[in-house]
Every structure is written in C-alpha cells, then in structure tokens.
C-alpha cells in the first residue's frame, strides 16, 4: 500500500465542500496514511472538529496560539512532521494568502514553515475560480512548486453550474497514492487513447460506438501511478481526468491521430485503448439532413479512418505499442491476428458480448497476448485490470532494447 505509514497533514478551509473531508480522512486512513487535520476558523462553520477527530484518531489543530499544543507538538514541529501537505478544500481566500506568503493563522503558517510537498485542492464558485486574481494566485502557487488539482465542473451549492467543485475524496486519495507509489516507469513518456470517436454526418448526427472510456482512463491513471509522464488523448466521454495526467480532448479519429502523432517524437510507450470508428462519412453535410416524406433516405458514403495503432507501430522510432481489441467471436484468434498484422508488442482483448464486462461496465476481463505469451485476467475492476497490464508492461520494458538506445 503506497500510503502505508505516510504522514499527511490535511488542511481544511471554510468552503461548503468541507463536508466531504470526513470521508476523505477516512479513505486516507483506510489506505494506511496517518492524517493530522488542521482547520481554519471558517472551516468550523461547515464541518465539526469532533467528526474529523473521530475519523482521524488524532486531535484536530486549529489555533496558532494554543499554548497546550505548543507545549507538545508546536507549529514548527508540526510543519516538519508531514510527508505531504494537502489542503482540501482550498477557498479563494486561502489561495490568495498562500500565494502572497501570508501567515496569520495556524494553517497558513504551517504551509510557509514546511518544506513538505504541497497539494492544493481548490473549491469555490465558478466565477471566483475563473476570476483573474484567483488564476494569478494559482499560477503563482504552481510556480512556487505547489501542485494544484483542477476543480471539477458541475452543479454548485449556489445553484449555478461551472468549474469549481472539489474533486471527490476517491480522486484526491488516488492522487496522493500516485505521489508515493513505486516509480517503476519514472522517466518514461506514455500516450494513452481512450473513449470513442464521433464522425459527423451533419451538424446533428454522427457515427460512434458504446465506448465509455473507463478502461483507457484506468490505464492512464495506472501508468501515472507507476511514475510515467502520461498524456491521455480522450474522445468525448463523461469522466473526470485521472490525477497527474495531461488530457487532450478530441472528437474525430483524424483529430485523435493528429494529437498522438504530435506527441510521438519522444514517445516511449503507446497504449491504444480508444474505440476508434473504423469508418467516417466521406463528407459531412453542412446543414442538417432533413427527412423528406416519400423520398429515399440519403446515401451516406463511408471512407476508412486511419489505423492509429498501426500508424504508431510503423514510426521510424517506434515506441512500445500496446493495443486493445473488443471482440464478440473467436476472441483470442482475432486478437492474435491483429497483434501480428499491426506489429504490436502486446494486445489486450475482451469479449464485449458479455454485458457484465462490456463498454459501460466498471469491470473487465481480458486476455493479454504477446508474441510468445497468452495470459488471462479474470473479471476484476478496470483499475485492477489496468494495474495488471501495467505490471506486464514494466516487465517487458526492462528487456526492451529500444529504450536503451
């Protein structure tokens, strides 16, 4: 467990998202971390110290002038204690204080006095988040070495919609895990494709498939946890970006290919999980195609989309290439044929006729093939499947002479 025994100082400031912090503390503790909560005065309006003490098993600190605390674990000692400082939620006011080095309460003083890595998790109204002053403060914190997790987009407590939601506790724990996970792929640059593509017929209609992107996002997250620098080229999906991963959003197969090739010059590993549409309309109508009673349906002439995985495998300086295949019959046979024809190093195939491990499922079961091996991973979460595949990638890369040249 990457977080086992790790000391995390969790700062809680006064935003409505503070109601999520007991769950965050519990999940960090369950993962093995030792959590010390430090609250601002305003945080007490949204969550109680009693609840946070109950889930952390440690007295909550909130007063710079607490003489009893200073006689035991003073603020300077506390600043030296953590392996990681996480502030969730971080309000606009706290971001401003941290960016300017203000130290007028216990939490801001600890941040200024600590040499531990700092992770800031903003949460606020979307207009406050997008205000130039807040963005300047975020940029300043990042320039000073802090990690600022992007807020989510969605409904807010004020009734408005936009960016500013605090990521869910699971996402914050996943990021913390990434910080401490064994870095077997440190220095490796990886690109992962995920989700479907949409090929426009007209401004309203398009050709696509049922891919949810879940397995591709899980692969990107697992590679990042292993220490790789990961770029995720994502088709249109409704998923939060994995922690520590650069996300490039595309729509069509052509856009996905171009985004991949633009990052291919120094690429070590390519994992093609996306369900790229095999065909696209030869031309897209500029206006909506109208139904005309009594007339035949319009003919749509299709043309073949580029094979992104095969294109990457044919690069003069080719990376280690992993493909994914979704089949319904002769699953292993079809996958082995693709492995050979596309000159892949590895391919994972699943049987999507099984709805329990289909596109929308959180679970998967795959067979992983190389030129000389065939290994079956029985049904598990897509995250666990991704970790198993990344483990095999790590083993293969140690023997891959291309990365040594």
In brief:
The protein is α/β, with parallel strands linked by helices.
Report the radius of gyration as a whole number of Å: 24 Å
Uncertain stretches: none
Distance between the termini: 34 Å
Residues in helices, as a percent range:
25-40%
Largest sheet properties: 8 strands, mixed
In round numbers, the mean pLDDT is 92
| Residue fraction in strands | 15-25%
Question: What would the principal axes of the Cα set say about the shape?
Answer: globular
**How are the strands ordered across the major sheet?**
12-11-8-13-16-17-18-19
Which structural class fits the helix and strand makeup? alpha/beta
DSSP strand tally: 19
What's the number of helices?
Answer: 14
Describe this structure in words.
By secondary structure, the protein is α/β, with parallel strands linked by helices. It is 32% helix and 23% strand. Strand 9 and strand 10 (206-207) form a beta hairpin. The chain is globular. It starts with 6 loop residues before the first strand and ends in a 7-residue tail after the last helix.
Features:
405 residues, 23% strand, 14 helices, alpha/beta, 32% helix, five-stranded parallel sheet, single chain
Write the layout of secondary structure elements.
Layout: E1 7-12, H1 21-30, E2 34-39, H2 49-56, H3 67-72, H4 75-80, E3 84-90, H5 92-100, H6 106-113, E4 118-122, H7 126-130, H8 132-143, E5 147-148, E6 152-155, E7 161-165, H9 169-180, E8 189-194, E9 199-200, E10 206-207, H10 214-225, E11 229-234, E12 246-249, H11 253-261, E13 269-272, E14 279-281, E15 302-304, H12 308-313, E16 320-327, H13 331-341, E17 346-351, E18 363-369, E19 374-381, H14 382-398
Parallel strand pairs: 1-2, 1-3, 3-4, 4-5, 8-11, 8-13, 11-12, 13-16, 16-17
Antiparallel strand pairs: 6-7, 9-10, 14-15, 17-18, 18-19
């Amino acid at each position: 467990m990457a977080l086992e025994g790790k000391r995390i100082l969790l700062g809680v400031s006064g935003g409505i998202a503070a109601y999520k912090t007991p769950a965050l503390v519990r999940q960090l503790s369950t993962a093995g971390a030792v959590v010390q909560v430090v609250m601002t005065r305003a945080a007490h309006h949204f969550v109680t110290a009693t609840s946070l003490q109950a889930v952390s098993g440690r007295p909550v600190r909130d007063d710079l002038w607490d003489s009893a605390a200073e006689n035991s674990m003073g603020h300077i000692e506390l600043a030296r204690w953590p392996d990681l400082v996480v502030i969730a939620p971080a309000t606009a006011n706290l971001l401003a204080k941290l960016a300017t080095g203000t130290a007028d309460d216990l939490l801001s003083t600890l941040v200024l006095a600590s040499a531990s890595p700092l992770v800031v998790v903003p949460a606020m109204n979307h207009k406050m988040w997008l205000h130039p002053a807040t963005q300047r403060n975020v940029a300043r914190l990042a320039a000073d070495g802090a990690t600022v997790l992007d807020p989510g987009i969605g409904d807010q407590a004020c009734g408005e919609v936009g960016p500013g939601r605090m990521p869910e506790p699971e996402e914050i724990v996943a990021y913390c895990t990434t910080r401490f996970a064994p870095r077997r792929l440190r220095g490796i640059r990886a690109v992962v494709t995920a989700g479907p593509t949409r090929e426009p017929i007209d401004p309203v209609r398009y050709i696509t498939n049922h891919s949810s992107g879940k397995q591709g996002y899980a692969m990107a997250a697992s590679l990042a946890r292993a220490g790789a620098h990961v770029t995720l080229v994502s088709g249109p999906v409704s998923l939060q970006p994995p922690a520590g991963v650069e996300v490039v959003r595309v729509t069509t197969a052509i856009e996905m290919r171009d985004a991949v090739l633009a990052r291919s010059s120094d690429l070590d590993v390519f994992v093609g999980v996306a369900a790229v549409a095999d065909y696209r309309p030869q031309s897209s109508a500029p206006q909506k195609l109208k139904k005309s009673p009594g007339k035949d349906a319009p003919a749509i002439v299709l043309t073949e989309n580029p094979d992104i995985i095969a294109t990457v495998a044919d690069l003069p300086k080719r990376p280690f290439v992993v493909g994914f295949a979704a089949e319904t019959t002769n699953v292993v046979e079809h996958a082995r044929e693709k492995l050979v024809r596309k000159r892949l190093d590895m391919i994972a195939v699943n049987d999507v006729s099984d709805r329990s491990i289909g596109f929308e499922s959180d679970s998967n079961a795959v067979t992983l093939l190389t030129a000389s091996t065939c290994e079956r991973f029985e049904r598990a979460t897509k995250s666990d499947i991704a970790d198993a595949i990344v483990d095999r990638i790590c083993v293969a890369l140690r023997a891959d002479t291309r990365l040594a040249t």
